[in-house]
Give the backbone structure.
Amino acid sequence: MGVTGAKGRGVEAILLVGGRGTRLRPLTISTPKPLLPTAGVPFLAHQLARAGAAGITRIVFATSYRAEMFEAAFGDEAYGVELVYVDEPRPLGTGGAIRNAAQALRGREDDPVLVLNGDILSGHSIPDQVAMHLKADAAVTLHLSEVDDPSRFGCVPTDDAGRVTAFLEKTNNPVTNRINAGSYVFRRSVIDTIPFNEVVSVERETFPALIASGQTVMGFVDPQYWLDVGTPSAFVRGSCDLVLGRLDSPALPGPTGPVLALEGANVSPRAVVTAGTVVGADATIEAGSTVSGSVLFDEAVVAKGAWVRNSVLGRGARVASGAMLDGAILGDGAVVGPGNELGDGLRLWPGIELPPTAVRFSSDV
């Protein structure tokens, strides 16, 4: 069942995509994080497709970093959703960005407005979240996810009726494992109370103030798939999970399985490619190589006998014969010479070329 707003009207959304994606550098030097290739398409395509399938009719992009690239990627319509773009002239925080983008909303003051973060993969039910919001006549309804380590996120306790009792942003002593999952339904009139053109954090200012003033803030708990893809390891995991079918996406450009090879990809039948690996357009994996749980952007090359695991190869990056990557990130056009061993967390900037055996973790050559 699709989402329905107040009095049966369609529901608009704001998509926050203004961040610089510094945790994912060097991949984000030339491309905003929400546009990075993820399971064969720009990351946002998965969010837009799921929003369209849920019945969202219109999305306002809150842009800032490389703002022009978003409209170039998606135009004025995608997956049945009308798209518009509002640039943020200077960083305004989450609240300021929402308030700035709200200039382009068409709805009335009592309408629900869905707010999505551009670095979240989520399988939660948008229609059910909106339905809870309307039933409770809430000021805001937060999507909450249960995680093993809530100290890294906003901790959000609720009462037995689902009403949020506090918003504890990244506390070392969490009182619940339910965290802010980054999807909100606002009453439009509440967005309008956020100061315009001022730096405001909804997590540190808006939500705590609403709770303190006695307004109804609800917590929508949904156990479905959820992942913040803001770090390199999470980005790789999210792409692989989509390819493996652990989260359904109407935007996936092929069947689920151990490997997704895009048009023009050349994968040798004598290579071992597994664990949700994406092989980009015109990318090559040569015979005798092993690639597991990795993301190869367009035109990347893994040469004969190389070994790549849990890594990202930027556009045109090359891994030579006998090189080994485990949890590494290669920028566009980077080259790893033979015999190198790049371990977890290593990042090679665009265009850098490592000569043979320049980086090793073992003594033998």
